[in-house]
Amino acid sequence: MFDLSGRVVVVTGGNTGIGLGLARGVATAGAAVAVWARNEERNASAVAELQALGVGALGVRCDVTDEAQVDDAMARTVAHFGKVDVLFANSGVTGDAAFVDMSLEEWRRVLCVNVDGSFLALRAAARHLVARGQGGSLVAVSSTVALHGAPRREHYAASKCAVIGLIRSLAVELARHRVRANALLPGWTDTELLADAKAYQRFVDNTVARTPVRRWASPDEFAEAAVFLADPTLTFHTGDCLVVDGGYTVF
Predict the structure, then answer these.
(1) Exactly one of 91, 118, 156, 159 is catalytic; which is it?
(2) According to the model, what pLDDT value does residue 165 have?
(3) Tens digit of pLDDT for each residue in 213-235?
(4) Among 85, 98, 166, 218, which residue has the fewest nearby CB atoms (within 10 Å)?
């Protein structure tokens, strides 16, 4: 139903976890993919996997908190593919600290990547899309933690709430340029980002028991959502928060 042939998609943090799941999804639908991430070895592995799906792929070493690197990554991607149609601002980090003991340094570390990094990547893509004048799609990966909260992760929750506010404002401002802006809110997912949480079996058992489908997600289960959010025919879909969480937030 969804054909992304001829589209170029950027996925920040697209070399592992949910990011790679998003990249696989759009590549399977025919899009060329640029993976922006810091680990060059993982970038190369992701690119090889995406190319095996029969699409063009590019890996760019990029720290999304560095303005110059983000702008350079956009320039390199456009030089390679000729354009960008979609950007998923997916790069993110989390942390684990009791709020009363959380340092300002730890607070800023998480917000720098999750908020500043999203801002820089989305801004670079927005500048290109507006100048190009052919519309496009911007997607920020938030989290259901923005809806239900999480102990010892107040900095992470705050950052994911901020991303939703950013996306909603972009949806309003960029609509006249035919640029859509939406947020993807994954639920509990088996990735390296939550490896520390999975070490506590009681926590895993409790979250699984509260989830109607009775399990955590795998990164590949966001592939179809990525294709939906990137589809250029859905011109009326903007300013939305797409929740994919196995029903966790229903309760």
Answers:
(1) 156
(2) 98
(3) 999 999 999 999 999 999 999 99
(4) 98
- Give just the sign of the alpha carbon dihedral 193, 199, 205, 206: negative
Q: Is 248 a catalytic residue?
A: no
Cα angle 53, 56, 60 (rounded to 5 degrees) comes to: 115
Burial readout 78-93 (b: 16 or more C-beta within 10 A, e: otherwise): beebeebbbbbbbbbb
Map out the domains of the chain with their CATH numbers: 8-250 (3.40.50.720)
Tell me the DSSP string of 183-246.
EEEE-SB-SGGGHHHHT-HHHHHHHHHHSTTSSPBPGGGGHHHHHHHH-TT-TT--S-EEEEST
Catalytic residue from among 91, 143, 159, 248: 143
Q: The pTM is what?
A: 0.96
143 is catalytic: yes
Task: List helix spans (H) across the chain.
Answer: 17-28, 40-51, 67-81, 104-111, 117-132, 145-148, 154-174, 195-198, 201-210, 223-230
